[in-house]
Amino acid sequence: MRILIKNIKELVQVEYQPKLRVMGKDMAQMETVKDAYLIVEDGKIKAFGKMGELTLSSALTGTSPNLGEELENADRVVDATGRLVFPSFCDSHTHIVYANSREHEFVDKIRGLSYEEIAKRGGGILNSAKATAAASEEELYDMAWQRLEEVMRMGTGAIEIKSGYGLSTESELKLLRVIRRLKENSPMTIKSNFLGAHGIPMEYRGHQEDYVDLVINEMIPRVADEGLADFIDVFCDQGFFTVEDTARILEAGIKYGMKPKIHANEMAVSGGVQVGVKYGAISVDHLEQMGDAEIECLKGTETMPTVLPGCAFFLNLPLSPARRMIDAGLSVAMASDYNPGTSPSGNMQLILSMACIRYRLTPEEAFNATTLNTAYAMGVSDTVGSIAVGKKANFYISKPIPTYEYMPYAYGENKVERVFLNGIEN
Ligand code: NIG
Ligand code: FE
User: For residues 276 and 272, what is the distance between their CA atoms, to the nearest angstrom?
Assistant: First the structure.
């Protein structure tokens, strides 16, 4: 199957020498090709370049694409006149397997209750866990599938999905099996994350180490036995799991082949960043509460600092110092945190806008933060996250828009017209 996308007004975020992530000043670098073509073969990006060069020899592939030949050989030709083509967003942090929405708590928060207060009285994550425990695997699958479809239409092509609304062995396994089915049936690139340590069930209040034991001794081995998780996560924060709990759980997960990827420093400077880095986490996420020590500790590591603008917006939290982190030479990724309690939206176009408007990233930095760096944060940046020869043909064609800067600028508007994943239009 060969597809030629022709007359692209601007092909955005091309890479001639693909990188696994970008950091510091490099985050402001983003290459584009104006008046471009893109050739897809067997689900992968085969070649790209300027329309005018279709008849000349292409340095990219060593072959000589010729418009006449390409048109003849193509099974499909798509004319993108007036439109831009972008690599699909990668959303490296979501919790989309859940049963109920939580708008009543949203109103409680407007009236003055904090997220932590709601959690303390048994709401929040425990509220979701109750409803999720009562739902069947089939029901959860259908609801999560709809959410996947919805974010795909808005331009997301790769996604990480966490369990964490189970909080019992059987319920956590149920959620992870839903994620496995989503992986099997969706054209999206999906990674699964076991987040048994998301909340402390009521019956373990006052002796949460017993719940940590359950996660370590029962849940992790069962999850590993069924091969259900790529990553292991912990909500390491004030009022939730301690640094010690986190260290124990990460160690156990690592033993079973799961890579750490944790929630840290949302409520407090809690040592979460340090424990994540110590255990080689692929990412540490949230980071609203960051001191100089946390920034220093991330330097020279393989860990991707990941900011969740939707959560900070929804909870009115202080903003993570993303600008300061980039200026200090770090990488920054930005993901949606799509979940019912702190970010009930998986719209990555909105995250792109918030990156620019609230965190002062330039559009180029914001694109890198929501594609290549989030792909890195879920371990897939060798196959998605930019337009590069050999990568999966995961991209979207915009509606007619003037420039790529218009994408973050026109917040709230859906600018995605057509979605291609693995070279197939969805
Ligand atoms: O990433 N912070 C922890 N977990 C989720 C919230 C989950 C919930 O409130 O349901 C988050 O924000
Ligand atoms: Fe989260």
Answer: 6
Determine the Cα angle at 271 with ends 266 and 276, to 5°. Answer: 90
Among protein residues, the one whose CA lies closest to atom 1 of ligand 1: 337
Q: Which residues of the chain have pLDDT under 50?
A: 56-59
User: Can you give the pLDDT at residue 380?
Assistant: 98
Amino acid at 29: Q
Identify the residues whose C-beta falls under 6 Å from ligand 1: 95, 124-125, 128, 235, 263, 266, 311, 337, 339-342
Express each pLDDT in 87-114 by its tens digit: 999 999 999 999 999 999 999 999 999 9
- What pLDDT is stored for residue 58 in this prediction? 46
Q: Quick one: tokens of 167?
A: 């909080």
pTM more than 0.85: yes
Strand 416-421 with 395-400, pairing: antiparallel
CA dist list (Å): 166 to 65, 99, 178, 290: 53, 11, 12, 30
Rounded alpha-carbon distances, angstroms, from residue 176 to 48, 97, 133? 38, 9, 13
Three-state SS at 173: helix
- The structure tokens listed for 283 are 């990412």
Compute the distance from residue 99 Cα to the ligand 1 centre, in Å.
Answer: 14
Task: Report which protein residue has its CA nearest ligand 1's atom 10.
Answer: 341
